[in-house]
């Protein structure tokens, strides 16, 4: 099936993202001050750009690890089935963990991952999500830190894809179809 044509309208500029990340990282640094155990866990693939910028603004010793979870495939609707495609490399038992996610939409992904990681008994586990789309929530979960609350639009850019494309855009944009289905 060929892709229905669309354009991308900018929603959040690269400059606004950078300013918000600076503020988030200041607060994260304050909250985790004194820990020598912070493990920053990025959820692949969507968070790879966000985590790269965020960790460089966190003024603490950090370890970086990744977990790959997938539920959308090429669709615009969650399959509601979260598959873990790659697990963490390190142990998190007894450690302070910051999960970094690009977007919380239905909440299925974050809910599944947080339950999985909590079962490993970290000392503390918090979540920083760049975007939150509360209108679409099906599972009640909220990140400790949220960059931006957004309306019910399908977004791309800054790591976030539509059918694996547009992850390399430096801003967050919304998908607008230009032809009927
Ligand atoms: O709250 P939810 O409805 O679960 O949606 C959010 C998740 O969906 C996307 O991941 P996706 O499954 O597309 O994988 P990707 O990160 O590799 O793009 C996104 O990166 C989040 O992880
Ligand atoms: O708005 C979105 N865009 C891309 N991927 C997503 N996964 C959940 N929500 C979204
Ligand atoms: Mg995706």
From TrEMBL:
Molecular function as annotated in GO: glycosyltransferase activity
Domain of life: Bacteria
Known catalytic reactions: GMP + diphosphate = guanine + 5-phospho-alpha-D-ribose 1-diphosphate; IMP + diphosphate = hypoxanthine + 5-phospho-alpha-D-ribose 1-diphosphate
Transmembrane parts of this sequence: none
Cofactor(s) this protein requires: Mg(2+)
Pfam families the record matches: Pribosyltran
Enzyme class: transferase
Family under the similarity heading: Belongs to the purine/pyrimidine phosphoribosyltransferase family.
Name of this chain's protein: Hypoxanthine phosphoribosyltransferase
Protein's organism: Albidovulum sediminicola
Organism lineage: Bacteria, Pseudomonadati, Pseudomonadota, Alphaproteobacteria, Rhodobacterales
